[in-house]
Structures are given as structure tokens and as C-alpha cells.
Amino acid sequence: MAHTAHTVKRYTGIMDWLTTVDHKKIGILYLLAGGLFFGIGGIEAILIRIQLIKPLNDLVSEQSFNELITMHGTTMIFLGVMPIIFALMNAIVPLQIGARDVAFPFLNSLGFWTFLFGGLLLNLSWIVGDVPDAGWTSYVPLANTEYSPHHGVDFYTIGLQISGLGTLLGGINFLVTIINMRAPGMTYMRMPMFTWASFITSALILFAFPAITVGLILLMFDRLFSGNFFNVALGGNPVLWQHIFWIFGHPEVYILILPAFGIISDVLSTFARKRLFGYSSMVFATILIGFLGFMVWAHHMFTVGLGPVANALFSIATMLIAVPTGIKIFNWIFTLWGGSIKFTAANLYAIGFIPTFVMGGVTGVMLASAPANFQFHDTYFVVAHFHYVIVGGLVLGLFSGLHFWWPKMFGRTLYEGLGKATFWMFFIGFQLTFFVQHFLGLIGMPRRVATYLPNQGFDTMNMISTVGAIMMGIGTLMFLWNIFITSRQPKNASADPWEDGRTLEWTIPSPPPEYNFKQTPLVRGYDAWWKEKMDGNKEMTPAEPLASIHMPSPTILPFFMSVGLFIAGFGFMYGRDPFDNAILGFLFNNYIVSIIGLGITFGCMFLRSVNDDPGYHIEVEELEDKGGRG
Amino acid sequence: MSAHGHHVEGEWPHQPENATLEGRNKVLGFWLFLGGEAVLFGTLFATFLALRDQVGDGPTAAELFKLPIVGAATLILLVSSLTSVFAVQALHQNKVKDLIKWLIVTVLLGFSFLGLEIYEFVEYIHHGHNFTTSAFSTAFYTLVGFHGAHVAFGVLWITLLIIQVKKKGLNLVTAPKVYVSAIYWHFIDVVWVFIFTVVYLMGRVV
Amino acid sequence: MMKRWQFSKRLLPLLAGLVLLLSACGREDLSTLNPQGSIAQSQFDLMKLSIGIMTGVVVIVFGLSLYVLVRYRRKPGDKSIPKQVEGSHKLEIIWTVIPIILLVILAVPTLKYVFAFAEDYSKDENAVKVKVTAHQYWWEFEYPEYKIRTAQDLVIPFGKKIAVELSTKDVLHSFWIPSLAGKMDTNRTDSLDKGNKNKMHFDAKEENVYRGKCAELCGPSHAYMDFKVKSVNQETFDAWVKEMQAPAKPFTGDAAVAEVFKQSCLSCHAVENEPKTAPNLKGIGSREAVAGILLNREKASESIDQAKIEDHLRKWIKETDDVKPGNKMGVIKLSDPELDQIVDYLANYKLDSLEKINSGIPNVGE
């Protein structure tokens, strides 16, 4: 076929980043944006902790405190850790399955930009001054216009809808990528655990995110168009919101933690130089956790008054999740058993994950017991529990994964010594912050309180907790410093910089060329690369002859589609506000701004549909020039 | 555009939508997307079921709904599903003219459905059944309106595809697009069957 | 397996020590670890059981991890390749079955208490019925049997079942007395007062004052939505009911200020038992705190400080938005003499029946 007819613009500089559809670059964009929001959420966390350092502190007002806790939770979950998960999934999953790209490069880019503009919209609330203040759960009636009359919660509903759209697109993209784009021989039961975890997480995203989208739409309709879903006076039902929120919210927890399970599995087996113990039971446990994750949402609602039968059923269902999770924990320990364990920074985080996550797991089982939950619910015990799972589990997992795959993503290895010091700073800080919070809850401190009275036995433990939080902040800064000094080093990471790599990503240069694999590899077993190494091979057997590679064109359309949604969101939010300025009033009150925004989005969709992307080809000569294996 | 002229070079494949990796990705991705859409509508149905008796001072479902109009709308949408099946058959047999013909019929039926729905809504508003009347009315307009918006998007989308097929012909790039639009159309038809049952029939009877 | 048992046997004293440590934690009028009523006691028993099991799990996992990390660390320059083990069905069955057994041990009492706690005492003749209504940011307690209504201080007889019915007038709140019973949400009811009204029951075992809290984010003053439970003996309770049923104490100041009090305060508050939009003031001079959060004594063993009551009332009326931001009272414009007389009236509006408990309960919470 004659391909030379196409000459596609290949951008450089900022335009390259705005238009890229390369999953590796999109992964870096996710990392940057996720890191930015993680930083904002972290500053919010430290402000919360400083406010609580002593009783009756008045660093921030009660209203600001509620804004801080709301934005901390929302930002961390939706805009901090999820995008960093997507960063690793983008950077690594196609490499692990031997694919040249994801299934939908265009949607991949669109997913990133909608996430970013949704997140920016949400955080613009700080600049506008109307900040969401009803908690990340935004329970009604507190989140209704009657009790939260400013635009804060509107930023929440609209910002999360836009960014949630991006997440949903990402989920579909990875499902199709993993189902359709695996290299020859990469059967499902040969996929690395991180790929498996990403697969299940994507499936959970697909089935959980539409529920929260509907919830947010209902709340938005109530707030912006005087709907009655949650308006008790006209027959609405506030408990309905809680059901919808948690039908999404509980799977969300597993959406977050499963990728960390995958990272830990890959890191531990690499640095123990040992095959993952009980691989098939690990896969099975992951699927089971994902499935059960949809059956247990009401354990967040034991005190709502669903009745003893519902409480009993949801208690038992929740306890069941401990079984597959326990299988995973012991499989990890026995992966290390008999291994040759190297304590790299990545591995330290992975090892630190195990006991910390076990702590979060056992308190989870305690919470599952409904009668005892009546005491734990909405206290600092719960705060401790979910931070053990999300920070002690997921964030340690993410740090582990970032240290592990940093050379693959950027071609430079992070400083090991500084990395280990960072681990200890962050890990000790974490334990100080959250271990005492279990006891704060048990001795009677509710969560989400802006301050507390003296003489209740809360003072010392809150002080310890705040000191720990500051240590975690310092740890995060140390990690940033590590990135900074590493970026000044030459790009010299080899293809398999840890020398014990087991999976396909370690067979190609660091960072990989835009087409990933010069020739699609032939996979002959689980731990594909390790198997070849053990058989004495220096590289993978190619599954195809060297031929020109078709690549998708870069495009600016996803960026503008997201800008359109961003504008439309503002239009809807201010559609019924009085304006002093007649022109602004005309534009907003007639929803012209919204129409313009949606027009941009749909216009770009139209362009995308009518203009087929011919893509471009990388010819054999070019491949031979620069495609050498590391 | 030589890269996309595959079908000229060889036989028209039995399933043109699955003949390329891009096509297979598109079809699978779209099925998954519909899985998400099913959750979306499922949540809306659950919401409607939770609030359907909360009519407040507004009219009840039994007072409002007139089955002849809704029945006609149902019939129209079911027939349009059939015509979109014919369109996919034409697609598989590489009969461009038949394909376009059946797509046009589908779009026209879609427009008549929308016309009936708008007429129906206007009637209800005359009877004091507004979006803000009660929890029931809000849930009703949201569920049925979401479906209506999906139909509206569908007719615009298929119209756009008709133009594309006319201009670019039927090939391995346009075939998957037409195919997924047909799955989409069936999906919103199925959703309507549920709406007809849960909202209208149950509203009249239970 | 034998070894495992030996190992757990050595753990038992450790567990016992931990439980001891837990029971020593926190104020007895506030901590879930220091139960003072039968419900909190059952909950604490369940917590001890689950903490015991879970501590065992944690110790085993930590022990195994530590052993593995020390035993199998890589020596410098070690290039050997460990044996690549696929897994072990035997081990996998062990760590599937043992957790299931542990969960069954926890699930049985869980089910028992789920149904026990849900028992309905609202028709029980021996139970004291209380309708709790939450407001931003205060608690209303109505005793339908006695046709009385109070706020912030829930007075109960110890040793008796208290059957509570919960609802809210605005946003969701959650009713929690850590040392007596776990929490329940207060749900909204519709205009006909119909809706998901939660029921719960609890009791206290002795004379004391317990701290109650709102446990559901309800707005800026969520942290200040505290209340107290005054648990008294049956005679005191009966006397208190009588006093509450009696006509209100007349205003003690000038006639002019009495009019101001009526216009400015009684428009929202009540001194009789009728429902109003703001907290009932009957016997406010005998309460544990002003506005639920400005404490008139630190613990029940002390006596209530009259000077504090007056200070707190003054502060509350003058700086209401500082004490509880977002509350609905607003600034009441009063001249100094008016304020003095109103504070004087309220601070001295005492209930004789509570005098004894208010002068300090000996040997409690020491």
C-alpha cells in the first residue's frame, strides 16, 4: 500500500502536548495534572490538621473548615489519586501487553482534557469564593440550595460531571485495549497483575461512574432548575442521594485500591526475583473483590435506618470481602518467602504497603459489623480506616509504582538514597497521623468537626496527628526534589534498569519510542520477558516482520471539546443569577453561554466524525535508524 | 485516501464492521459504552420508581397518561428498530442505496417519535404537570427527557452518517460507524420498551 | 498447625493487655471504650471481640512479614535465581478457610445484636419515650407521655429503657451518646410528619451526666452541636417531670423588660411546653451548658458554676454568631439593663429537682 501520500504535521513544544494522542505522553500529562491536584489536596489536608492541632483553635473559620474538608476529599479522590492511577495505566499497560497504542488514542486524549477542565472548574471555586462545603459526599438537604445557597455545590456537581466523563472514557478505552490489543501469545492468564488490576478497575469505572453521573445530574437539576428529587416538601427523598452516591462510592474504593494491588504484585515479584505466588488465585481474588464491591454500598449507611435485615445482609456481604483480600496479602508474603529481596525505594514502598493495608483491612472488617458500626460511624475511627486504605494502600502503591516505572517513563532513574529517605519520612509521618485517629474516634471524637473542646482527652493525639501530617508533607516535598534533581541528569536508563524485570515493558528502550515495539513480540508464557531471559535469550521473539507502522495523527479537537464543556458548565451555573452588567446578564440568563460551550463541543465532535484521520506511517528506514533495543 | 480503499481491493467482508482492528475496537468499545448507559438508565429508573407516587398537588400518572399517543410512539420506535435492522443487512450486503434508504426511513421515524413526545409534553404542561410540580414530575421529565435527548442525538448522528456514506461511499471506515449507530438505535428502543412498561403501563395500572 | 497454636497461645496475654489498655481509654462520660449502659456495653463487647481477632491477624501478618524480610534479604552481589514457585493449593486453602472461620465468629454476635438493637420499645409501658428532633444546631426532646418538652439536656431515669424516635427539621444530623449507645441518623419527614423516623433505645446504669454529639456534618456549627444526657434516679425524674409540667416561672424583671423578653425572645423560644422554632427555655438555669457548647461545669463531679451560667448566657446573646456560626437566632438588640435582667431571669430559672445532681455527683468520673 502506498502510504507516502500523507504528510501529517508532527508538532513540537507546547502544541505537541496539547495535541498528543500518544498514550505515554498522555500518561505524563495525567501525572502532572494529578500531581498538581494532589498538591492542592495535600495543602488542604495540612491546613485541616493545623486547625485541629489544639482545642478551640481559630486558624480558619468553621465555614472555611467545611470547605477545606469537602475540597480535600473531592480533590484527592477524583483529581489527585485517580489521575495518577491513569498516568501509570497509560504509561505501562500498553507496554505490558505488547501493544503499540491504546484502542482509542483520540478518546484517551479527550479523557485527559475533560478530567483536567473538570478539575480546574471545581478548583476555580476557591478563586470565585463559592466553595463546596457539604462534604465530599454532599449529602442533601445540606447540599440543597436551601442550606447551601451559594454556588459551591454547583462547582462540585458540574466539575465532577465533566471530569467523570473523562474517567469513564478512560475506563472504556482500557477495557477495549486489554481485550483487543494484546500481543500474540499474551493470553488473559499471562497478563501481568498490574494489567489485570487495570482491567478490573476499568470495568468497575464503567459500571460505577454512570451512577454518580446520574446522582450529580439529579442534584444539579434540583439546584439549578428547581427540581424536586431531594426536596422533601414536594415528595423528594434525601436518602435516595445516599444510595446513589454509595452505589458509586463503594466500587470507587476498589477502583482506587485494585491498581495499587497490581503495582505491589509486580514490584514485589521483581525485587524478590520470584514469580508471583498464586497468580491465578490473585486474578480470581481481584475479580471477586471487584464483584463484591458492588454488593456492599449500604455499609456506609448502617445508621440511616434501613432496618435490621438490610443491615445484617450488608454486614455479612462486607465481611466476605476480607476473604479475597486476605488471599492477596498472604500471596504477597509468600512471593517474598524464599525470594532474594532487594530493598530498593520502590520495594520499600511495596513492603510498607503490606502491614499498613492490613491495618486498613482489619478496621474495615470491624466497621462491617453493623451494631459496632453504630459507634464507629462518622468518627475519627472511620477517618483512620479509610486513610489507611487510601493513603497507606493506594498512595504507597503509587509511590512504589512511580519509583519502579520512572526510568521507563522518563529514561532516568530516581535517586535511590533520597527515595528511601523519602519513604521513611512519609511512612512514619503517615503512621503518626492516622494511627492515633483510631483511638480519637473510639473515645468520642466525631469526624468533620472544625474544632473540639479541651479536657476531652483529644488534645495530645490531635497534636501527634498534626505533626505526622507535616512529616507527610515534607516527604512529598522530598519526592518532588528527587524528581527535580533527577531531571537534571542524563537520560541513561537502560531497557531493563532493575535488571530483574519480568514483563514486556522492560524489553523496549527507556523511554520507549512513540510506536513502543518495533516488532510486536511473541509471548511464550507468564512473565514473558523473564521467561526469555531464563531461556538465555537477549530479546523477545518478534511475531511479525519489520514493516512500516501506522500512527494516529495528533489533534487539538479533544482540548477544545473539553474547553467547550468547561464554558457550558459556567453557563449553566450562572444561568439564573442576576447580573449588574446587561451584556453578561443577557448572555448568561438566556443560556447563550451554555449554548456556545456545547456548540464548541458538538462542533468538534462533528469535525471528528466527518474528517477521517488518515494517520501517518513510520517507515522501516526510520525504525532501523532509531529503534534499536536498549 | 488510498489507505481506506480496502474493500475495492478485495471482497466485501461478511462483517465489514469487524474487518479492521479499528472497527473491532469501535464495536467493542461501543458495546461497553452501552453497558455504562444501561447503568445510567438503570439509576434513572430506580429514581423514578422511588419517587413515582410522590405527586404532591400535581396530577397523578393515571390522570395524565393517554395510552393511544404513547402506544403510537412505541409502535413508531419499534418499527424504526426494524428499519435499522434492514439498514445493517444492506450494509452487510454492500448495498449502499438500500442502506441509505433504510437509514432515511429510520431517521424519519425517529423525528416522528420526537414530534409525538414534544406534543405529549406540551399537553402535560397544560394539565399543570411541570418539571417543578412534584418529585414525580421531576423524575418523569428527567427519565423520559433523557431518553428523548438520546433519540434526538441518534437522529442527528444517523443523519450525519447518511451524508458521510453518500459522500465517501461505504468502506471499512464508514461501515463500523453505521453499525454502532444501529446498536445505539436498538439500545434506545429497548430503553423505551422499559419506559413504556415502567412509566406508562404501570402508571395507568398500579 | 501445632506450632501455630503455640504461637497464638503466647499472643493471648498480649491481647488481654491490649483490651485492658483500651478500657482505660477516654472519659467515662464520652468514650465508647468506657460503656455506661447496656447498649454501649454490648457494642463494646463486640468491639473487643473484633479487636481481639483482628489483633491476632495483624500480629501474624506482621510477624510473617518481618521474618520473611530478614530471612530472605538479598546479600550484596548475590546473582542467584530463587526457585520460581507457582503457588500452593494447600496454603491457599488454609488462608481462605481460616479467615472464613474468623468471620463466622464475628458474624454470629453481629447478627444477634443487629436484631436486638432494632427491637421496638416504643409501645413498652416500662420504657420512657422521647421524641428527639434535631435542628441546626440544637436538640429538642419531647416526652409525649408527659406532654413536656425541653432542649439540650435530655433528662432520663437510670435503669430504665429509653425509647427514642428521631427526626430532623432541617438537614440531616446524627444522634450519638458514645458512652451510652451508638448513633442513629435523624431523617427528614414530610409536611404531614411522615417519613423514615428512626427508632432506637438505650439505658444508663447509674447517676451521671453524659456527653452527646451530632455525628453528621450539618453546617458550619456541626462541631458545636453537643447535648447532655442527665441520668437521674426515678424520684428525681418524677419530680423533674412535675416541675416541667407546672406553669413557667414568671419573668422577674421590670414590666417593660418583660415585654421586651416576650417580643424578642418568646417569639421563637418557649418557657412553657409548646413547640417553637427555637430551644425551650424552661429551667435553663439548671442546664449543663448554654447553647449546648458553653459548659457550666467540666465534669459531673463538680458543681455547676452560677457565674459561668451568667457569663455564658451573656456571651451567647451578644455574640451568638461567634459561638455558633450560621445559627438562626441572629443578633438581638438589647440595652444593658434589658440584657442584665433577661440574663438574671434565665440564669436563675432553676428546677429544684435537679439541684442535687447539679451540685456535683460524688465519686463519678474520678
Automatic annotation (TrEMBL), chain B:
It is a multi-pass membrane protein. GO terms for molecular function: cytochrome-c oxidase activity. Its main location: membrane. It is found in: Cell membrane. It comes from the Bacteria. One of its GO terms (biological process) is aerobic electron transport chain. Residues 1-204 form the Heme-copper oxidase subunit III family profile domain. The chain crosses the membrane at residues 28-49, 69-88, 100-119, 139-163, 183-203. One of its GO terms (cellular component) is plasma membrane. PROSITE patterns: COX3. Keywords: Cell membrane, Membrane, Transmembrane, Transmembrane helix. The keyword Lipid metabolism does not apply. Belongs to the cytochrome c oxidase subunit 3 family. This is Cytochrome (Ubi)quinol oxidase subunit III. It comes from Paenibacillus agilis.
UniProtKB/TrEMBL annotation, chain C:
Subunits I and II form the functional core of the enzyme complex. Electrons originating in cytochrome c are transferred via heme a and Cu(A) to the binuclear center formed by heme a3 and Cu(B). The chain crosses the membrane at residues 51-72, 93-115. Its main location: membrane. The keyword Cell inner membrane does not apply. Its cofactor is Cu cation. CDD domains: CuRO_CcO_Caa3_II. GO terms for cellular component: plasma membrane. GO terms for biological process: ATP synthesis coupled electron transport. One of its GO terms (molecular function) is cytochrome-c oxidase activity. PANTHER family: CYTOCHROME C OXIDASE SUBUNIT 2 (PTHR22888:SF10), CYTOCHROME C OXIDASE, SUBUNIT II (PTHR22888). It is found in: Cell membrane; Membrane. It holds the Pfam family COX2. It comes from Paenibacillus agilis. Residues 125-243 form the Cytochrome oxidase subunit II copper A binding domain. This is Cytochrome c oxidase subunit 2. It is a multi-pass membrane protein. Belongs to the cytochrome c oxidase subunit 2 family. Binds a copper A center. Residues 24-121 form the Cytochrome oxidase subunit II transmembrane region profile domain. It comes from the Bacteria. It catalyses: 4 Fe(II)-[cytochrome c] + O2 + 8 H(+)(in) = 4 Fe(III)-[cytochrome c] + 2 H2O + 4 H(+)(out). InterPro entries: CcO_II, CcO_II-like_C, Copper_CuA, Cupredoxin, CuRO_CcO_Caa3_II, Cyt_c-like_dom, Cyt_c-like_dom_sf, Cyt_c_oxidase_su2. Keywords: Copper, Electron transport, Heme, Iron, Membrane, Metal-binding, Oxidoreductase, Respiratory chain, Translocase, Transmembrane, Transmembrane helix, Transport. Its EC number is 7.1.1.9.
